[in-house]
Model the fold of this input.
Amino acid sequence: MQIINETFLELGTHNNGEVSDNQLILLDIDLDKKDTWQEEAIGKNISDARAELFVLLKDITAKTNQDKIIKNYKELQKFRKAPMVEDKQQIPQEEKPKNAEVIIYCDGGCSPNPGKSGSGIAIYRNGKVDELWYGLYQEMGTNNTAELNALYNSLLFAQEEIKNKNKVEIKCDSMYSINCITTWAQGWEKNGWKKKGGEIKNLEIIQKSYALYNQIKNKISLSHIKAHVGLEGNELADRMTIYARKMKNKSLIKYEKNINVEEILNMMV
Done:
């Protein structure tokens, strides 16, 4: 990920201080805020791919040429990822464990932090992505809140899967969220939901998640995974967080478009 600062913006800005509409989109900035784009951009987190494209589009004024560069870059990204697709036939055990019929990947994102936040979930059945969910948008949220929201809703999905007698595994890339409900909450509860050193942030969602986790913890598996290391489920959940911030839905919404994995992984680089 790339944190946007003034030095980075200089790399992709025209001599007259302007940027193109495509560059604004890469910075996750609404076009109607073009007059204040620099102030809007500072502090945001964007993917490395978006950062590279932002710089590559510097001084490319014709939109047709910009579109060609973006298209060619996406083709390069596909080429880079192609060997990983082949590797998945042997599969990281994390991707398709033998003892789980349903795998739920969850993720949360915020840009800047604090700022616009959203959550994403990818549900796999029988080793294949079956559902994608996005939403829980907050105009002024945090990364931790978005991660907790994603985990709580994953627990809700897991609860329903258990009713259908399915084995369920939840994979989360936020160690903070996992620790909140599996380790720290027990002590906080015993202490009247207080902790030494100050308030417990995100207390309401932590309490809800902790209560639900305790109901089903013996029937599910919850594990931590590293983010952005090529696990398809984690990457899809990440893209849904970006889509959530774009669509600004405050509820959790099912992604109803055709699930074309390559297109989803590449459409929001």
